[in-house]
């Protein structure tokens, strides 16, 4: 109880409000002026397609092998193996949302729907719609759905509720946009939904519910209290006041499409994850002075135990700092 009371006193009651634009646009311009050769890194990753196909097939094969397994075996395999595969596919969908597998957008969208299959829940097209807003309106009130809601900030006030929030953060991440900034579904969103449901029910009909539950377990345990899910917190939660985006330079980048290079990604969203390390290598003077991480597990631990950090630990800015006003 003492810990809970101390956290309630220390946790902020509102977001950190910024009085200017997000930092990436100005840094991008400055880096391109200083290092114009970085433009050579722009464009699709030719290895994205075979990598995605390999992970999808491996996950399908694993689910097939587990069709008669016990629930305990399924959970263990899902946590220590399938979670990494499905999270890899989630982050592959992130790459595809930036059209980083093919130059033609429709091919990226189709590949995203394919990559979505072992995830079990339709999300590829919807993710792209809201994720691009996150880049265009980083931190802008009512537009950036990566930022927790006021309800989350008011409810998650101590170490115990923070543990629950981390466990179920994928639900918050997925459902938040539908409540705070709902958008009418388009053709591709409906197609994603229909194809995913058809694939799910076909798999259940052929291999049974237990095999299908492996997909769901892999998705949601890998999005909760799991090392690879630490990127959700590490990317933009403010642990050092004044810095709103953080990079991670640890080994899990190998399984996570280098999403850990997050400052570099926001600075240059047209560069595929496989080449983001080159940005830091070419322009180290812009990144070496920024706070960064080496462990996503440590980030989760810090978030839960740090009495001053919670859902409100994000940079927020008013709507007039978004691109609509900026272009006038």
Order of helices and strands: HEHHHHHHHHHHHEHHEHEH
The profile of the biggest β sheet is:
2 strands, parallel
Terminal Cα span: 52 Å
Strand content: under 5%
Count the beta strands: 4
Number of domains: 1
Instruction: Enumerate how many helices there are, as a single number.
Output: 16
pLDDT < 50 runs, ≥5 residues: 1-9
Question: What is the CA-atom radius of gyration, in angstroms?
Answer: 20 Å
Strands side by side in the biggest sheet: 1-4
Averaged pLDDT, please? 94
Structural class by secondary-structure content: mainly alpha
The general outline is globular
The portion of residues assigned to helices is 55-70%
Family: Belongs to the fatty acid desaturase type 1 family. DEGS subfamily.
GO molecular function: sphingolipid delta-4 desaturase activity
Transmembrane segments: 73-93, 155-175, 212-233
Protein name: Sphingolipid delta(4)-desaturase DES1-like
Structure, described:
The chain is an all-alpha fold and 328 residues long. The protein has one domain. Helices cover 56% and strands 2% of the residues. α10 packs across α11. One of its GO terms (biological process) is ceramide biosynthetic process. Belongs to the fatty acid desaturase type 1 family. DEGS subfamily. It comes from Ceratopteris richardii (Triangle waterfern).
Please provide a brief summary of the model.
The protein is mainly α and 328 residues long. The protein contains 16 helices and four strands. Helix 4 (71-97) packs across helix 6 (124-136), helix 8 (159-167) packs antiparallel against helix 15 (296-305) and helix 10 (187-207) crosses helix 11 (209-221).
